[in-house]
Amino acid sequence: MRLDILFFIDYDLDDELPWHSTISRTRQLFPESIFEEVFTNVLHMCIEKGMVSGHTQAIDSAPIKANASMDSLELKVPEEDLASHLQKIRHISAMGKEVPLRKSKENKASKDQQTISANKQELGAIKSRNKKWAKDQDKRQGAGNKGSKYTSNKTHYSPTDPDARISVKPGKARKLNYMSQLSVDTGHHVITDIRAYHADKRDNQFLQDIVGRLKPRLNRFGLLWHNCVADTGYSSGENYAFLEQINLQSFIPPHGTYKGGPDNFHHNRDQDHYVCPQGEIIPFKKVFNDYRTGTLKKEYRGTTHQCKDCPIKLSCLGKTAKEKKFSVTYYKAEYERNIKRVNSPKGSYMKGKRQSTVEPVFGTLTQFMGLRKINTIGIKQANKVMHLAAMAYNLKKYLKFTQKLSKTKAKALGLIFSKLNGLQNLIIFNFHQPNFN
């Protein structure tokens, strides 16, 4: 039907066309490495054309809808252990209706994916969350999505697509999604890296993997990466320290909850202790791993004698504590250096660059490049779909790109001299012509 496409792929009108499954099943026939290599080759074409500067990369993420329904979710086994627990935490909604489960035709989940892995603390958090939601179920985010009530990745899985994960964005309904992590060069908005991840983790857990893949790729083509720009979701002390170790400047705003210590307490860096408003020294005690966040922290603790007759004891310690005790992130110095960069004029410029670079690219991918929903099953196939969308985007920019020549005084002088030489040659030519008059 499309003669232009037949001409492009070098087919005549009477040639037999390939069977449609040869094209539609290509994603399943080739491994992920092939798609990534083709994406890298397309990126190399853009680099050779002068479309990629390499020095500043903007990183962002977006959930992409998986090809699975929330109504088909099933409980993780062993069911005999979960039955009594879920009976306690499950509440009928304010609408007074139970949600009918839509069974999938085939359970594609492995044994590990069907087995519950949550500990008692995590199950307790789910229980308290569901109690809170039960009081005002209809006003909760995503309450209109009937399959989203009282579900968690800790207790539920999708038999249709076990790699999909339940996730939610503020103001949106809970859905089964994949997480797309995207890196864009700020020069001409060329995509330099993309990958599918599970959607049940935070963005800062993916940053080191992204950088470890992207930096060698840029170095392979002779590009040096200097600035890593991302939003608050990628903030963590481990990430700041990691980027400093590989000589990358981070422009990642810290979380609003970050505090370098208690209010009005002064930190002595040389001796590593804090001085309270009353002049008492609160010394460093130990380094420990916070099990709730999985991050390293440093504990500082005073003595009961120091705080016994303190005039601000009640406001500083509260009603029950006997001595001052608090913890600070192990990476406080890295946090402070990053905050200084973020608050600088260059940091403001980088923030604008990020907002005008990576966010429009995601909008184009989801609206025009088929990345609004993953139409395949499994994270490997989802990764291929994302690479195909990124290739289409980069090729489109490649075809439209025209290199702009900078106007410099040297080029202007060269143009003037060339015109003068041309005029001189014209005069000499006319002077030496014979006069027939």
Give a brief rundown of this model.
With 437 residues, this protein is of the alpha+beta class.
How would you sum up this structure, described in words?
The protein contains 15 helices and 13 strands. The chain is α+β, with helices and mostly antiparallel strands. The protein is flat and about 100 Å long. Mean pLDDT is 80; it is low at 88-101 and 426-437. The strands form three sheets. Strands 1, 4, 5, 6, 7 and 8 form a six-stranded mixed beta sheet that branches. A five-stranded antiparallel beta sheet has the order 9-10-11-12-13, with no helix packed on it. It has a two-stranded antiparallel ribbon with strand order 2-3. α4 packs parallel to α14 and α9 (237-245) crosses α12. The chain starts with a helix and ends in a 6-residue tail after the last helix. The protein has three domains: 32-67 and 180-256 and 338-400, Nucleotidyltransferase, domain 5; 70-160, no CATH class; 266-323, no CATH class. Helices cover 40% and strands 16% of the residues. It comes from Bizionia paragorgiae. Residues 95-167 are annotated as: Disordered.
